[in-house]
Amino acid sequence: MRLNKLHKYSAAITFLAMEIFAVLAFSFSGNFIVYGAISLALAILLILFNIAEMKIDGISSIAFFFLPLFLFSTITALSVYSRSHAYVGDFSTVELVFIPIAFIAMSFTGYLLSVDKSFKMSTLLIVIYSALGVLCLINLIVNFVNFGAFYTVLYKGYHMYYGGVMSETTVDKMAYVLEGLKFIEVRMPRYVLFPALLFTSSIALLFVSPKENKRTFIIYSIFVLVSLLSLIFVPSLLGLFSVVLILLIDAIIFIYQRFEKIRKAIRIVILTGLILAGLLFLFIILNNQSAIPFVHNLTSGNSFLNRLFNTNGIINKYNPLVENIFSKEKFLGYIVDNMINQNEVHMSGSFLFDFFMTSGVIGVIAFIFALVVGFKGFKNYFSKENDNLYIKVTLLTFVIFYLAYIGTFNDTEYAIYYKLYQPVYMSAPFLIMIFIFSYILAKGNVAKSEGGKEDEK
Fold first, then answer.
1. How many domains does the chain have?
2. % pLDDT > 70, the chain
3. In terms of Cα–Cα distance, which of 81, 80, 67, 76 is closest to 97?
């Protein structure tokens, strides 16, 4: 086949892939149609130029990740929730079409770049973090110009006026970020996301020797410095929490990698924590089903349980999203009937609960299954000599922190004076996360296959 000869020029497409990921990283805020279109174009080009390297077992390695992800994205695009928001103009029908297309494209891009001999993940990480670093510096400078350093402390409790209208959010809880081609006022979780993601590069400093790889160590040190400057000069409790969380993730990964004797204990602690979190999640769901009233009667009849599961401010963000989700009206996603009158149930900031509204029960199950497959893929990826260790731990840290962040602080309607609506699955970092999972699954499988062949010899 003539297409088989195109792999000789795959280096050019690999360079283009780097440019596209730079656009995604720099434009973490922006138009999802653009994200979907460039993701699709990149996947098609990679197929054409790497068709000689594609193998059935390689594609099958991402099947258990791709299929539930495709199910989730398709249900989400077709759900009542998506169509209702498209009806009122929060996003277009074309954007809905691009949800499954972008997910498919990013899944295949991860696999195709894993078999591309001219592709280096070390280079891509520098590209992504560099673009993100530039974005953080721009946002920091704009906030210096408009508010000054440490304004969240100096102007705590102050309000801002725009066109004679007082902002509902106080100055200490807002910041400027580059949104598309303009700077807009956003709530603090939106601002913190960018430098916090950049700070996930800090894990590399624990695994890169400054003597043996001075250039890489300096580059990642600059990333960490830029992220800390962005968070220090625009201080917030959320920024501090993000830094502490990332350092905790770094410490756990470092200890796990360096001290083999306590790996089993760490695995037990993590597994126990995940099981308890899963049981808590399931109990919150059951507590809000009128079809099984004894669970709610149990919690409401006890003052401590009632405060824990029914009346406190945090749980009240989540309970409305999972109320009677197994009913016919909500099983495949829902929205309240009087949404046009602005009385809808707003997202909670946690994708685990928000996806019940956007994607229904099946969509949530499909996405959780995809996550489980993705994290299991890291086991093969770490056990094989495919990429440098600092690359592996950086990818893992990025994914863990991003999921933790969107599981607690994701703000869908983050603009203050503008009407913007961006569900987390229609964002660039979400697509990058999909790419990372697909890449490590394919890379780990290839390494496993090659290791098996060597054993046979």
1. 1
2. 90
3. 76
CA-to-CA separations, 15 to 11, 120, 124, 356, in angstroms, rounded: 6, 10, 10, 39
Cα(440)–Cα(65) distance, integer angstroms: 11
Other C-beta atoms closer than 10 Å to the C-beta of 57 total 11
Low-confidence stretches of the chain (pLDDT < 70) are 1-11, 27-30, 52-58, 336-345, 385, 446-457
Q: What pLDDT, on a 0 to 100 scale, did the predictor assign at position 16?
A: 80
DSSP string, 220-235: HHHHHHHHHHHHHSS-
Looking at residue 408, its pLDDT comes to: 92
Q: What gap in Å lies between CA 306 and CA 323, rounded to an integer?
A: 16
Residue 193 in domain: yes
The CA distance from 358 to 351, in Å, is: 10
SS3 content of the chain, % helix, strand, coil (to 5): 70, 5, 25
Return left, alpha or beta for 209; rule: phi > 0 is left, psi -120 to 50 is alpha, else beta: beta
Residue 442 identity (one-letter amino acid): A
Over the Cα atoms of the chain, what is R_g? 23
Instruction: Tell me the C-alpha distance between 236 and 150, whole Å.
Output: 9
Nearest alpha carbon to residue 140 among 228, 39, 78: 228
Q: Measured between alpha carbons, how far is 56 from 198 in angstroms, rounded to an integer? A: 36
Contacts of 316 (CB under 8 A, 6+ apart): none
> Residue 89 domain-assigned?
yes
CB count within 10 Å of CB 221 equals 16
Strand 161-162 vs strand 174-179: parallel, antiparallel, or unpaired?
unpaired
pLDDT at 192: 96
Establish if 123 belongs to a structural domain.
yes
Per the DSSP assignment, residues forming a β-bridge with 174 are: 187
- Residue 70, number of CB atoms within 10 A of its CB: 16
Question: 409 by DSSP, 3-state: which?
Answer: coil
Range of the domain at 187: 2-258+370-451
Distance of CA 43 to the CA centre of its chain: 20
What 3-state DSSP class applies to 269?
helix
CA angle 213, 20, 366 (to 5 degrees): 95
- Assigned domain for 244 exists: yes
Contacts of 363 (CB under 8 A, 6+ apart): 71, 72, 75, 76, 79, 332, 333, 355
What dihedral angle (degrees, nearest 10) is formed by the CA atoms of 120, 123, 127, 133? 140
Residue type, 128: I
pLDDT at 341: 46
